[in-house]
Specification:
Helix content of chain A: 25-40%
Low-confidence stretches of chain B: none
Strand order of the largest sheet of chain B: 4-5-8-1-9-10-11-12
Low-confidence stretches of chain A: none
Mean pLDDT of chain A: 97
Order of helices and strands of chain B: EHEEEEEEEHEEHEEEHHHHHHHHHHHH
Strand content of chain A: 5-15%
CATH topology of chain A: Amidase signature (AS) enzymes
Strand order of the largest sheet of chain A: 1-3-2-4-6-5-10-11-9-7-8
Number of domains of chain A: 1
Oligomer: heterodimer
Radius of gyration of chain A: 21 Å
Shape of chain A: globular
CATH class of chain A: Alpha Beta
Mean pLDDT of chain B: 92
Order of helices and strands of chain A: HHEHEHEHEHEEHEHEHHHHEHHEEH
Distance between the termini of chain A: 21 Å
Structural class of chain A: alpha/beta
Helix content of chain B: 25-40%
Chain lengths: 490, 475
């Protein structure tokens, strides 16, 4: 059965209604908490629901509005954070036993920015342990289910955040995207998901998986909501040295500009010419989106990004290498789990053996190997050179195109257990999304129709670094065209 | 070598790695105070504790200090990249240390010792310090401890590691290198360079080789030397240990060893077998550093006079060689020396008094008075003993040397008066005089002492000695 919400209120609608007094934050919060109450035990989008705190914050916000205060552009909007973003005094687990019980003494920058904009935190969402996975099956606390079909995965690693929006538990949520962990679950859950330009959103307080690839971004019901959330969370943060020293780009104002005259490149390799395993229904929806954009005035042509074929190989050296270093600190000395040992090395080993799941251990071993003396050049060094090549090819493509288009995920949501036995099959889920992480460019997934199994399909809009405005402009048109196509079919 | 020479046929090879804590207000990657001696774990935050989700932001003052030190050591200041050095240790919060690897901030340089010997500098890179462990129980090492306490106040304190070339071949040079580096750190204000507080920590890489060979044999890294003197002892011990091994058809293993000050020996430390591969890679949380030519030029422009330049300047003004004036510069008394020289004093006298009689400071002594005193002594108006007494008075209470000398009743004794005294003394002590004439040097003090007693110290010892010598040669 489906727990996906029909005709949900968007974040923009909620914020306008709350700010104008048409409704209040408490009422909005109660509606959302009621949905959580009704089906969360089945969906398991959350590691932690902060119902009491959320109600208190809603009441406090209503009081401020009653006092005439401008509480910000996300007034009263219920939101959720992936449970790898630090929240002061609130458990932050990365869905790992090794961090169970740890309460950060500080907030992630994005948490503060959302709160300052009037958004209200409802809970912390489930993920593949340390964001390593594409189905949320690697969570130490059990998988999240796809609200459209509880027998299927929501995608991952930000599966909880995608499901929380799709189920109407919150109007918006944040995920993190290292190789597709926002876009792929967005596609599988039928919501909008954005991986901003590397450095566009502060990573301060995001528990690192692969630092040079990780990027925080929103899940929402609409492109306009995603634009609004991006405006709130984006912009320079002095606490993150890799943060782009510029204010967040204005996005909400570009959404109705259409695509007339814009040049859209359909990535050949991801359309059945180079990368195997993209299913026919997903290819068909992507082609239909391209045709619809052409009909709406865009100049659509095919483009080749040859290095994208090697993206997956490069990614599975770079990401585990960085992860092997980032995850060293979970040693049982200072916080989280500690398993006793006869001496410090045995304590470290026992703690990490008990605290990490299989996929995390697999990647730590891969990364440790890739960085080892004598192998660095052949593996990590070569993988980094591929990133440079890929970025060059994208840059060349963007000489001829304003945006690129591709499928987001090679397939629609699959059944639990389908790919857990074969890590490579699971890794292939990210084959279309990984290149953007390697190059640092922005990309987003927009729902476009359904697959042969009736599950949502997402198409991916890619743009050059810091060119979020044109990406959102095209995404908004894709969203309109999807609605038109749906209307025509009914 | 001063402490003990290596056996014939062996040459010492030493390279030094000196960790210097920079005297910044805050830590390298966060805004916690960089403060020694505070209550444990009070100067900490998510970043220096390496809490999940925290990120580093580089301290510009630390980078500036590192570049100042680099330029003071004649290094090439170059574009650099932070790198992670990965290994597990409980006092290292992230279980990796942010350091620099293939692209350090400061490349090749050199350090000239007071005697003119030049020690090559391979690099001087920036890195963060670790926390400090105290192992309770057992022998004080982590392996046998009952439990360990960790203070993270030091975690994230900015360090520069200055790595020398292995081209020091005497203990004296190794000691002079550390001393010179410390003086440079103090002159530039980059560090307070206190070995006893750990703000300057020296690891010595020691090996030996047959004299005349250019090979580099297996080295051992000696840690835990807390003073320049300890370092000298540790190098000496370790070099002899190596030679003994080679002489017994054995060889040292490459390892880290700890200096045991109480027992005067080195002992094996942490085994390096697990830690050999640090899996360095570029730190993705930090941007590369790329100083502009203008920044580097501004550093050179603002560089204070360094010990080497000061030694040269003073030596030239005093008509001496740099090694002769090293101690004066080390004690920061070269300014006084130069002023006294400018006021007309002779170089040798100025330097002699500074080294022998002004070690505790010049007090109320003005350069002019100093110059006057030296000139009076040179002219023979004051004996060296009198000059020392007058100088002490000038240091204590100021004034002019002529006034002070007159006040003390010091007037140079006429040589003819002295001759009468000396002849009388010889006549009164024929046995002693006989021994003196046979070359018994010990009896010389008897004669000089008696004359001094008779003249209440006003006789010039030098003149007395000359008189005694001339009487002996004519008798």
């Amino acid at each position: 059965m489906s727990h996906a919400v029909d005709n949900p209120s968007t974040a923009i609608e909620i914020a306008q209604a709350v700010a104008s007094g048409a409704t209040n934050a408490s009422t909005v919060m109660d509606e959302h908490l009621a949905r959580i109450e009704a089906s969360e035990t089945e969906v398991h989008a959350f590691n932690l629901v902060l119902a009491d705190q959320a109600r208190q914050h809603a009441d406090a916000l209503d009081a401020r509005i009653a006092a005439g205060e401008d509480v910000g552009p996300l007034a009263g909007v219920p939101i959720a954070l992936k449970d790898n973003m630090c929240t002061r005094g609130i458990a932050t687990t990365c869905s790992s036993r090794i961090l169970e019980g740890w309460e950060p003494p500080y907030n992630a920058t994005v948490a503060d920015r959302l709160a300052n904009a009037g958004a209200i935190l409802v809970g912390k969402t489930n993920l593949d342990e340390f964001a390593m996975g594409s189905s949320t099956e690697n969570s130490a606390f059990g998988p999240t289910k796809n609200p459209h079909d509880l027998s299927r995965v929501p995608g991952g690693s930000s599966g909880g955040s995608a499901a929380a929006v799709a189920a109407g538990y919150v109007a918006a949520s944040l995920g993190s995207d290292t190789g597709g962990s926002i876009r792929q679950p967005a596609a599988l859950c039928g919501v909008v998901g954005v991986k901003p330009t590397y450095g566009a959103v502060s990573r301060y307080g995001l528990i690192a998986f692969a630092s040079s690839l990780d990027q925080i971004g929103p899940f929402t019901h609409t492109v306009a909501d995603a634009a609004l959330v991006h405006e709130v969370i984006g912009g320079h943060d002095p606490l993150d040295s890799t943060s782009i020293p510029q204010p967040a780009p204005a996005l909400t104002e570009v959404l109705d500009r259409g695509v007339d005259g814009l040049r859209v490149g359909l990535i050949d390799e991801m359309m059945g010419h180079g990368i195997d395993g993209i299913s026919a229904d997903v290819l068909a929806r992507t082609n239909e989106a391209a045709e619809a954009l052409a009909a709406a005035g865009a100049k659509v042509d095919r483009v080749s990004i040859p290095a994208s074929i090697y993206g997956l190989s490069s990614y599975y050296l770079v990401a585990p290498a960085e992860a092997s270093s980032n995850l060293s600190r979970y040693d049982g000395v200072r916080y989280g789990l500690r398993e006793d040992g006869a001496n410090v090395v045995e304590m470290n080993t026992a703690t990490r053996t008990a605290g990490f799941g299989d996929e995390v251990k697999r990647r730590i071993m891969l990364g440790t190997y890739a960085l080892s003396a004598g192998y660095y050049d052949a593996y990590y060094g070569k993988a980094q050179r591929l990133r440079t090549l890929l970025a060059q090819e994208f840059n060349e493509a963007y000489q001829r195109f304003d945006v690129l288009l591709s499928p987001t995920s090679p397939c629609t949501a699959f059944a639990f257990g389908d790919k857990t036995a074969d890590p490579m099959a699971m890794y292939l889920n990210d084959v279309c999304t990984i290149p953007s992480n390697l190059s640092g460019d922005p990309a987003m997934s927009v729902p476009f129709g359904i697959g042969d199994d009736g599950m949502p399909v997402g198409v991916q809009v890619l743009a050059p670094a810091t060119h979020e405005p044109v990406m959102f402009q095209v995404a908004a048109e894709v969203e309109r065209l999807a609605a038109e196509a749906k209307g025509a079919a009914q | 070598m001063s402490e003990s020479d290596l056996p014939e046929g062996w040459e010492l090879v030493v390279g030094l790695e000196v960790h210097v804590e920079l005297a910044t207000n805050t830590k390298l990657f966060c805004s916690c105070p960089n403060m020694f001696g505070d209550e444990a774990n009070t100067n900490v935050c998510p970043t220096c504790l390496g809490l999940p989700g925290s990120l580093p932001v580089v301290n510009e003052q630390a980078v500036h200090f590192a570049m100042v030190l680099g330029r003071a050591l004649g290094c090439t200041v170059q574009p650099s990249v932070f790198a992670r050095k990965n290994y597990f240790y409980p006092d290292m919060p992230k279980d990796y240390q942010v350091s620099q690897y293939d692209l350090p901030t400061n490349g090749e340089g050199a350090l000239e010792l007071p005697d003119g010997y030049v020690v090559g500098i391979e690099r001087a890179h920036i890195e963060e310090d670790t926390g400090k462990s105290t192992h309770v129980g057992g022998d004080g090492r982590i392996s046998g401890a009952d439990y360990s306490l960790v203070d993270y106040n030091r975690a994230g304190v900015p360090l520069v590691e200055v790595v020398s070339r292995p081209n020091m071949h005497t203990i004296e040079h190794a000691k002079a290198y550390v001393s010179e580096l410390r003086d440079i750190l103090l002159a530039t204000g980059v560090s307070d360079a206190k070995m006893e507080e750990g703000s300057m920590r020296v690891d010595a890489n020691v090996s030996v080789r047959p004299t005349g060979s250019t090979e580099l044999r297996t080295r051992c890294e000696i840690k835990n030397v807390n003073s320049i003197r300890s370092m000298g002892r540790a190098i000496d011990y370790e070099a002899h240990r190596h030679i003994d091994l080679y002489n017994n058809n054995d060889a040292p293993r490459q390892e880290t060893r700890h200096w045991d000050e109480a027992n005067g020996r080195t002992r094996p430390g942490r085994s390096k077998e697990d830690a050999d591969d640090y899996r360095y890679f570029a730190e993705p949380d930090l941007l590369p550093l790329d100083p502009t030519a203008a920044e580097i030029a501004a550093i050179d422009e603002a560089m204070p006079a360094l010990p080497q330049q000061r030694r040269r300047a003073l030596a030239e003004a005093a008509g001496l060689v740099p090694a002769d004036v090293a101690l004066v510069v080390e004690r920061n008394q070269d300014e006084l020396a130069l002023a006294a020289l400018a006021a007309g004093a002779g170089g040798a006298g100025v330097v002699k008094h500074l080294i022998n009689n002004l070690a505790d400071g010049a007090g109320q002594l003005t350069p002019e008075a100093f110059a006057g005193l030296v000139s009076m002594e040179t002219r023979g108006d004051l004996s060296s003993t009198q000059a020392k007494t007058v100088l002490a008075e000038l240091v204590a209470n100021g004034g002019q040397p002529a006034d002070v000398a007159a006040g003390l009743g010091f007037e140079a004794m006429d040589t003819s008066e002295l001759e009468i005294l000396v002849d009388g003394l010889i006549a009164d002590n024929p046995d002693e005089w006989g021994r003196f004439c046979e070359g018994d040097k010990k009896i010389q003090g008897f004669f000089v002492g008696q004359i001094m007693k008779a003249t209440k110290g006003q006789a010039d010892g030098k003149v007395v000695n000359q008189l005694l010598a001339s009487r002996a040669s004519s008798s």
